[in-house]
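INFO  loader      accepted 1 record
INFO  loader      residues=477
INFO  predictor   begin
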Amino acid sequence: MDISSIAPATTIIVIDWIIRIYLIFHVPRGRKPTAATAWLLAIFLLPGIIGWLLYVIIGSTTLSKQRRARQITINSLVADAAKQHIKHTLPDSIRSFTTLNQNLSQFPVTGGNAMTVITDYGAIISRIVDDIDQSRYYVYIESYITALDHGTEPLFQALERAVGRGVKVYVLFDAIGSRKFSSYKLMRDRLSDHGIKWRTMLPLSLIPHRYNRPDLRNHRKLIAIDNRAAYIGSLNLIEPRYERKDDIIYEELTARLEGPIVIHTAGIIAGDWYSETGDSIRHFNTIPQIKPTGSLIMQMLPSGPTYKNENNLKLFIDLIYAAKKTIVITNPYLVPTEPLLMALITAAQRGVSVTIINSEAVDQWMVAHAQRSYYQELLSAGVNIYLHKSPVLLHSKHITIDDDIAVIGSSNMDVRSFELNFECSLVIYDKTAVKMLEKMHRTNLAHSSKLTIAVWQHRRVWDSFLDSVARLTSALQ
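INFO  predictor   done
INFO  writer      dumping tokens
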């Protein structure tokens, strides 16, 4: 045996174990025990340097030095947008929620708003096109996925007409979320050729001061037009089949907004534009302000790695613990953290009617199994679980609490949306909004089957095993 070959191998092994032991102390800092445990298991069970190398690449959600510096300016954009609101005398029943949300995001509650809820894909695109065609000053668009196809062609034509009239048009789309679709290069070229300003969000960069964890994503879906109309919800700007080869078709829910909340929406998009470009856009502060158009009290709550708190998770937990009668959650991906799971179970056990609407159709295998690993606990606690029938995948994301609070947005209810994704939620403190969503609930339930604990307990052992494995990996954040 060549002794000279043993020394380097021994050195590598020693260094590997020194790093692993160091990570035992480093990994748990500022991290939830479940996530820390999952990471340490990965580090020690994966062969060689794979585990700790994986941790170095995606083990931290801290944003790059450049983005952290730009966040200071973004805060001022948010503050400028937040000045445009109508003060309202708030009932004591919602004051704690509005205070929490403002402390988390700086956005105050504002009155004088109106809302229309739209679920038909063609109707959503048509309404957006109409608003763009009426624009005179600016159009801001931010979407996790943006694609050029038969469904979005009218939208692109409207943007081109707007630029031709002298309207300032800005488009943001996620660097990874949009890249995999066939029209990606054609879409970028077309935007550039027609003078539409566009940027990708969170592009991968290996430059140290620009490096961000590569799986951080901007998952927001927001549009703001002329301080007159805004959109928020689950709709990505792509045809409803997402170019899939199977029979899955996505069903969305989007809210069209009017009133001061539009300016708040514009401020969030402007902040993200600054994050990616370093350019400050403030059209929402320089054009004529729109008078109140309705009576709804609303509040924006952006969330993501730029915030010290998990804004959306705190909102959801606070609302669930405050519920007195009913909770209805429609969301395609519900993989609850321990605090969220406890809140749901506790609500059901104290007599609140808790209903979760998921989907039979599966487009993300690992997430689907992780989600199903929680069904047993939820069903045992008395939570009602309904699965929307295939091939429709109910991609809508909204919550109603009792008869007076509704939440609509882009956020899933999983660790990714709580810690890794940039999301945005709209909270509406009004019975009218709840009634709008209750109509959607009834429609969704009519096309869903109720899951019973008896049926669930008799699923295949192999499926149960996969659920458990997926549940473990879901904590690896």
